[in-house]
Amino acid sequence: MASARNRLIEGMLAHYPFVLKNFRTYLSNIYRRKILGTNVVAPYSAIFYATHKCNLDCTYCTQKNPEVFSEELDTERTIEIFRRIRKDVDTLLITGGECLMRKDIEELVRAAKRDCGFRSVVMVTNGVLLDKRQPIFEHLNGLIVSLDAITHDPSEPMSKSAQIPKVLDNLMLAKSKLPPGAITLSCVLELWNLDEAERILEFCRQHDFQFSVQSAQNNGKHPNFTYLKDARYQAFVDKLIDMRKSGAARINGTPKLLNTLLRFEEFKCYPTMFPRVYPNGDVFYPCEVLRKIAGNVLEDGSISKAFKRGKKLYGETPACKNNCFLFGNVLSSYYVEDFWGLAGDTVRRG
Questions:
Q1: Which CATH class is domain 42-339?
Q2: 8 A C-beta contact, residue 323 and residue 218
Q3: Which of 25, 43, 32, 29 is nearest to 303 (CA)?
Q4: What's the distance, CA 31 to chain centroid?
Q5: Which residues, at least 6 apart from 115, have a Cβ–Cβ distance to it below 8 Å?
Q6: In which region does residue 349 sit, left (phi positive, over 0), alpha (psi from -120 to 50) or beta (all else)?
Q7: So where are the chain's domains?
Q8: 192-223: string of b/e by CB count within 10 Å (b at 16+)?
């Protein structure tokens, strides 16, 4: 017991900026929920969609043109969006579409880190264009590369499978440029790619990459419960949880969180914890899936003010019956409902 307590204390000291931020947010959310009686919790990290253009055509994607479109602003106004976002959060995740298709992405990443002062800047990409955008590495704290297969299949040129050799080369390039532990491979599970997910997991173990996973959603909104009837799917989930418990691989999420996420167990979502901002500055309330816009950070001045406006327009965050089993949504539940378990697990792993 003493050794476990000592490891926890050592982990908290080693991660003191992370721990301090989390305690502040945790206490703020207690006040909001218990005193103010609202489930509109404090923003923790913002997600900015740099573009909805993409050079691939993944079947499960819900964030690409023409299905979704938002006007991209020029570099100066986009950086101003970052400044407004920075008033509420110190962590920025830049995604798309494929964000590396923006011609000014190097300048945007540099400005987010150096001019706007985000403590952490993380990018999500399919990895195809990384070698063309090498200046970004200097300003990134983390890189998330989405990968649903690792076996080369050139039969569909717009699929990720067709781009595997290029992506693997770029992953090795990124590994040489970024700090240890900075790279995550994110895999969307479907029944067709379970074997590929196993190979991606092993690839992560070989190269000390983090493995992150969630299941493809029906229409981007609802879980596919037929997965739970598939013995191979259930066996893979069991394997992930066992490996996460034993520390055999770097897998994103606690064992309990993974079980909730991949077996579609009930959870309460707190979507305002990870606000989503579109290229034109629109802020969604309470979440992007419901397609309700709270306001615009350029007009309202901050995410908090946009949320305040959104709450007046749409009321409290709804109790969704068909939850979107996206990693961030489930993470928000564990952060609010099981903060101590999540925090203890995180610092011990460090």
A1: alpha beta
A2: no
A3: 43
A4: 26
A5: 79
A6: alpha
A7: 42-339
A8: ebeebbbebbebbeeeebbbbbbbbbeebebb
Peptide bond before residue 43 is cis, with ω within 30 degrees of 0: no
DSSP-derived pairing of the beta strands 120-125 and 91-95 = parallel
Read off the pLDDT band of 345 (50, 70, 90): low
Q: Which two tokens stand for residue 71?
A: 């006007």
> What are the Cα distances from residue 160, in Å, to 65, 170, 233?
17, 14, 21
Q: Dihedral through CA 94, CA 97, CA 101, CA 103, nearest 10?
A: -60
- pLDDT, tens digit, 9 for 90 and up, residues 271-301: 999 999 999 999 999 988 888 999 999 999 9
CA distances for 278 relative to 11, 202, 329, angstroms: 36, 35, 18
Per the CB < 8 A criterion, the answer to whether 166 and 128 are in contact is: yes
pLDDT digits (tens, 9 = 90+) for 203-261: 999 999 999 999 998 876 788 999 999 999 999 999 999 999 999 999 999 999 999 99
